[in-house]
């Protein structure tokens, strides 16, 4: 057991003690050089930073329930008590030693790697970089420690101080340099030498790290973030991408005054270890040792001629660029929808609404095309990252919160503390993914304890007014019955924006923490070993998946270099397909049970017949066996709609229930068909068999549509759109055609060409309408499945003569625009028909099932009655 662990064990019974005396805190601040300016007093004017000091030390009330701060507190830690733990995500605070000392430990090292004396800050790496704690810090085992705990919002105040910014920057660089050196895959003696000469840098997205032709003065080791290399070829630019663990400028170790053969740009917030080349050349032993130890991370060629590890086909490079450019690779927890499996039912948004009272998931967002496997050369997997929180490594929303209401918690989760939120919307405006919305605080309170009795949201994920309920004082009119909406066939309307003046609070995805789905015991520990997400659990086809990008996306995992420890741990096999094991296991069990049961039933009927008594019974025969097996299958089938209503507790993944529903239905269908034999019997029995046949038929149609519909949609839709968006776009295009026609018609009438215009332009337009809105052109969308750009190009070529025959260039251009609009309208129609088909089979299936169940009850009573008699 390490010294840190031993000390912590002995200190478990002890607790830290808060120093509530504000004057003592002011005196402690006055004794720390870096922040003493905060309590500077100006005679005749008072404290120089009076307002900031009040908020930081005392807190300030801005109204009922709106207390801000205090953000600086002071604590006494007894000897050996743990202050921060390595690997923890509690990165909302950092500390400054006031008295005593603290000891710093890292995993695998028995003795402390550093001792911090009064005035020394620690923990700032986690706050500034948004990373887990890089070391364990305990109160000195003999002296104990008194520390100031500084929360993230206080940084706004402290950065106004002249000394603090410089001191924090120096501390951050020193700690960062030490942390990176400790991660290097080199011997310990080399780490110490590198740490002595290197510098740690943090650069923003878009920062140019190196220019082509620039002399290499420093090796640039990527500790965190992503870098784009751009080389110049005869036919244009050639790019590739590097991740943590790779080194830029390594050829300078071989050739003095070597130059960068490419331009390098940071694709995200990037941490670098800069090692001066000249210092390495002054120490040939160190230079050779580094070249031998880190050659694999530095000998990476150029974008035009990369090493084998960085050679990817164009499809993979396209996916890499999309993921890195949109910042998705920096998510801690990313929600993905596989659009080949998504049946556009909206169950994910509804599940989010049911568990939280307000949906935090909107089925619009960033579309990603990528190869399904590393060997594929086409972008054949369509993924949608919906507008939901990514729990980013470097969340912009945290820096914008003035009260510290939004913070990072266990496991890297970013969440909002409602009691601290003042509804300022700073976090929502700074989030680049539109993942934070505002609702009235009263509705949050209503949904906290129990789901409110109110209408569900529209299935695009927002409440009916977009951010919350109706405006204060407004009443909702009684809605008339809509049969299409009752069966789920009416496309959901777009929600209205928030207009109320009620006090607001921010909400976002919290990974279903503190919900009935993931309960905790009295000690605050999770009841279940596995964490579940309600949206993912309630997807009937398994289209949703929460992933860690560096593990799921093989194309991202493969650009991690070997220079740093733990980089290789992110590469998890062939992560492209990510076969759903639960789903495949359910398929396997379903197929085996179906074959065994149906095979055994048919073999028994062939052997004994339907009516031959078995087991020395006068009545028990294969007709009874098939009837009972069929009844058991129907009972299992009917458990699926029961599971669908289990929104707020665990009931197993809905996709598995859907498969059990399907296989049980197949088994019941086959066995009951054998049960009926060739004789339909009486009217009730005949009606029962017919209704059962309809259930089977509509169910098979549903399976077929669920298999083909989403895949056909992804082939022809391009960017995934909700049905209501498609309807709105179609209306806009019809209006655009009308407006364009009126514009050129008015111009022709002014020029006295009314008759000629009617004979040329209007005739050509009407011919185009008849051709492009025809049934044949609709079927073309499904058969050819070309991209919209290719479709528009084909239409232009088809009507090239009609365009050329127009009198003026303006009319030629307008006719071309109308052709584009008509072709787009037909593409939209094709998409809408698929959307409708995915819902249209369900009402007949439900109705026939209801009739079948009613007749089956009558049939069972009838059979039991005759048997009893």
Low-confidence sequence ranges? 7-12, 449-479, 567-577
Q: What share of the residues lie within helices? A: 40-55%
Computed Rg: 34 Å
Outline: globular
Structure description:
This protein has 869 residues and is of the alpha+beta class. The chain is 44% helix and 15% strand. The protein contains 30 helices and 29 strands. It has a five-stranded antiparallel β-sheet with strand order 1-6-13-8-11. The protein has a four-stranded antiparallel β-sheet with strand order 7-12-9-10. Strands 14-21-16-19 form a four-stranded antiparallel β-sheet. The longest helix has 34 residues. The protein starts with a helix and ends with a helix. About 6% of the residues have low confidence.
Topology record:
Elements lengths: L2 H8 L6 E3 L2 H9 L10 E2 L3 E2 L2 H9 L1 E2 L5 E2 L3 E6 L4 E3 L8 E8 L1 E4 L8 E3 L4 E2 L1 H6 L6 E4 L5 E7 L2 H5 L3 H22 L4 H10 L1 E5 L4 E3 L7 E7 L2 E7 L2 E7 L4 E2 L14 E4 L3 E7 H5 L2 H10 L1 H4 L15 H12 L8 E5 L8 H10 L5 E9 L10 E7 L8 H5 L5 E3 L5 E3 L9 H5 L6 E4 H9 L33 H4 L17 E4 L26 H4 L6 E4 L1 H4 L1 H4 L23 H28 L13 H23 L9 H23 L6 H34 L6 H28 L3 H19 L2 H10 L3 H11 L1 H5 L4 H32 L1 H27 L1
Antiparallel strand pairs: 1-6, 2-3, 4-5, 6-13, 7-12, 8-11, 8-13, 9-10, 9-12, 14-21, 15-20, 16-19, 16-21, 17-18, 17-20, 22-24, 22-29, 23-24, 25-26, 27-28
Helix pairs in contact: 6-7, 20-22, 21-22, 22-23, 23-29, 23-30, 24-29, 25-29, 26-29, 27-29
